[in-house]
């Protein structure tokens, strides 16, 4: 089996071809919401070239279905697209693995879709979806198949399985911790199972995450508990398919799907009119102002912002957004922006780590219009 990142001969394809992802670009898009990885294809045709060309087309169709599944609640069917529309929607692809014979092509592909085209295709067909992405969660895979819980002691099959799937690509990105001395001393298997809030918070803060998910592999099922900052633990179970190695990867994908589905159901943005909201942004210095603007551009429900006034210590903005105010608040929070609407003009505060200060407060300006935000590439989403 070959691992390749090189141009394919696809002259037989009737569609305009998307560009191939070079290795550097592929690395940069890890965690991209609109990048679908590990798309398996197995095609037989009259020749190896025909099989490969058909395999690429089939991979794009499957990737589209997988992307819609990612952005929508369970049970949503991906709309069937004309071949020309689907071809225009694909920005790039990567051949992760391939194997060929005289008449057969087996491959594993990564396909990157154009976010603007995806939004248009779904909205035009009345498919409700969400791009609101959760802060990442630190993943603690505990293996309890033999009775004794194992977390850090060696590379368990359960941890290996999580390393084989695209855990950082969904609506709720999952991060495997390094397992260094600091991690091992902070949380062991017993404390992970107990879900001590202080320890969960400390681990999340180390990785700048929004919480921790402890997923426990047992003989028959997987029990997963999500510990989010400021929220109550959420626990759910999922079955372990028959087999072992591939079954563990399938179990990991099932857990990922359940976490993403719960998030999607709670954060669906229904179509409708764009709304506006005037907010005041307290500012400590110019560095904070730059950080707020950058993070606003990465909030998928915010379609634009306009600076009403900018003075020393604060900015007044008018935001345009889709969805209701509750969804706006959730989306902003994923970018460490806190929205308070109680009493007077709503306030938008930066609640993350202090950005590097430029040393001066922002200069006063009035009537400056900011362009509509552009799609973010990774890991946060655009609009």
Automatic annotation (TrEMBL):
Keywords of this entry: Signal
Biased composition (Low complexity): 355-376
Domain of life, per lineage: Bacteria
Signal peptide range: 1-26
Region of interest (Disordered), residue spans: 338-383
InterPro entries per UniProt: DUF2066
Pfam families: DUF2066
Coiled-coil boundaries: none
Protein name, entry field: DUF2066 domain-containing protein
Organism: Aerophototrophica crusticola
